[in-house]
Amino acid sequence: MKFPQIRLLLHPISTLSEKNIGKTGKKNEPTYYDNIMPKLRFRVIEAAFGKKAVEVKQPSQRPTEYFAKYVFNRAKMQQYLAPDIYNKLIDVIDNGAPLDRDMADEVASGIKSWAISLGVTHYSHWFQPLTEGTAEKHDAFVEHDGNGGMIEEFSGKLLVQQEPDASSFPNGGIRNTFEARGYSAWDPSSPVFIVDDTLCIPTVFIAYTGEALDYKTPLLKSLRAVNQAALDVCHYFNPEVKKVFTYLGWEQEYFLVDEGLYAARPDLLLTGRTLMGHESSKNQQLEDHYFGAIPPRVVAFMKDLEIKSLELGIPVKTRHNEVAPNQFELAPIYEECNLAVDHNMQLMSLMRNVARNHGFRVLLHEKPFKGVNGSGKHNNWSLGTDTGLQLHAPGKTPEDNLRFVTFVVNTLMAVYRHNGLLKASIMSANNAHRLGANEAPPAIISSFLGKQLSEVLDRLEMSSNDELVNIEGKRGMKLDIPQIPELLIDNTDRNRTSPFAFTGNRFEFRAPGSEGNCASAMIALNSAVAEQLADFKTEVDALINSGEEKIPAILSVLRRLIKESKPIRFDGNGYSDEWKTEAARRGLDCETSCPLIFDNYLKPETVAMFEQTGVMTRKELEARNEVKWETYTKKIQIEARVLGDLAMNHIIPVATKYQSELIDNAYRTTKLFPAEKASWLTAKNIGLIEQIAEHNNFIEENVACMIQARKVANRIENEREKAIAYHDTVTPMLESIRYHIDELELIVDNQMWPLPKYRELLFIR
Ligand code: ADP
Ligand code: MG
């Protein structure tokens, strides 16, 4: 196939039309794309003119009918398992009852029948190593039948446990290659599902010696800890409650870019973000993208994604344009936390696949483009009971509301005590670009309660037991919080700058990054809340044992907690400089260096908290931090290499070429005109020639310095020190080199510029 002779990317998009394609390229002059990406040019042309939306085949059934089609949920269990096995399995799922081998065989056989009926040939333990992604190794069902033939087999043993090689996953030194065994073990609380021809079994992933090598293990332990601690506190109010659930409703933000343009950006390809690119003249200033009409190509992608998500049992509900151009959001209905985390991991891989079928690439990076909003993953979190109570929602009676206030205040106290840890739980090399920039929460964790709830807490703090006890009500007492019912789910009072905001019946943790595993934030939050609720109970019980009535005992501990946790409450503008000063005065964690923020995981109070709640041991925490520092270093290292290569191989040569043209022009002008006129005519060119030289020199020198800084950092053995060196010496150079490249982008002839620009990446579809 012959491609049109046009360097489209190097050509002002606005002058393109169907008829001049093929005519405007300079003949016989090999270009960047002629040399390496002829096919790409064709796709870029399509991108420039807007591809047609892919037609999405609507299922013949209604969503309620195809929902969870590929999930072995309770309905399928009932259908494929004998009644006694079904009941036992439900006991395992709901109550953590042990799972014996015989039963596992029966369950496996039922799952196999179901899977085979859907054409499945393979199975895989599906787990979440410390890489931010998921891992899977597929095995076919096939086994020898002993007579020279094959049978399809799937035993309980294969369902329940496997031994993947643990040494090739990040493990922070827990796994040595000579002792590579790790175990993956089935998590029955998250149902098995089918992707393509493979049965996926959600599992935990642990080392031979028992340490967690994944996110799911500590997440499940943190959920157990919250359940225990919250149940005890709940029993002060509702003795009939048997279980407390943690709920998570995530909101996933993402960008879409056309795959043709994506392919022409080695930085996007290799690092997930643009390491250079001058701001587009128009980006999000007009605020015309947020909630705007969704472009047809994107709607098609969303529809397709939603159908496939629903088939996997992911209850997707909301879709809309986000603030930045080409930025979108998807949110499901909230679910039990463990399942919600798994669903988010499934969704992210689904998004990547579906996007490709629509000629897009999805960018889940926290900050793909400078100067426009980055992407987060708001984690809406709350506790609820098996009896249907929402523990973070106000109720109708004073008792309900005291319970509500109890859970809110303890949550605030937990967030106050561990604000540094919560920040560490969401921090990464990528998310560091987002936090503290003027669009996402600042790099200081604080909590917004809104006017009404703040007043309730203030009033409670000021009141005394005596005045309460005199008011009529249950046990001769009515609580002085009658206004609370008016609070009901009032969402109007909002503060977008707050990282941890109360939103009517839940807290919304807004700092998590778009690409990260939600589990990381949830492990920290659940464990901190579990610790605090347990401490609360100890304190209240001590008062009761010393003769105090239950309600006054609860109230007096709450009063102290309200006072003590006050520094975490902040309803003002989180972006302001005054807040940074004020937060430091209040003793909140204001550190901004990513490697130093990770230190929060190893503070004595953090280790004590994780050990007391049984979520993680010191050894696990230390290992995980090694992984965090190492990952940070590697990410920055890759970015520095890519930027260095692009600067030297793409930018400098092109800038120099353009500079030569200017020199040539100036030279000829002086030949053509008398000296005085020539000097007037060439003044502008000479200025540009000098500017290009200055930028080029800066870039060359700093790329060399950056290589040197890396060499120095690479010699450091200690992972923490190395990450700090990368943070302190390499990261600033990424920014300064970029600045000069972006300035060149404004000067150099548009036709020569070798990379798609922001105005193309962010607007063409
Ligand atoms: P917004 O963008 O206004 O914050 P969305 O509607 O996009 O809100 O998302 C809100 C998310 O919070 C949804 O996933 C929703 O299911 C979830 N959510 C609602 N109530 C609760 C709750 N009690 N606990 C946890 N999540 C909740
Ligand atoms: Mg939100």
Distance between the termini: 24 Å
Q: Which distinct ligands sit in these coordinates?
A: adenosine-5'-diphosphate, magnesium ion
Instruction: Report the major sheet.
Output: 9 strands, mixed
Structural class: alpha+beta
CATH top level label of one domain = Alpha Beta
Number of helices: 25
How would you sum up this structure, described in words?
- This protein has about 775 residues and is of the alpha+beta class.
- The chain has a domain at about 65-215: Glutamine synthetase, N-terminal domain (Ubiquitin-like (UB roll)).
- Helix content is about 50%, strand content about 10%.
- It contains 25 helices and 17 strands.
- Strands 9, 10, 11, 12, 13, 14, 15, 16 and 17 form a 9-stranded mixed sheet that branches.
- The longest helix has about 55 residues, at about 620-670.
- About 45% of the residues are buried.
- The model is unreliable at about 1-40, about 470-480 and about 480-490 (pLDDT under 50).
- Bound molecules: adenosine-5'-diphosphate (ADP) and magnesium ion.
- Magnesium ion binds near residues 251, 378 and 508.
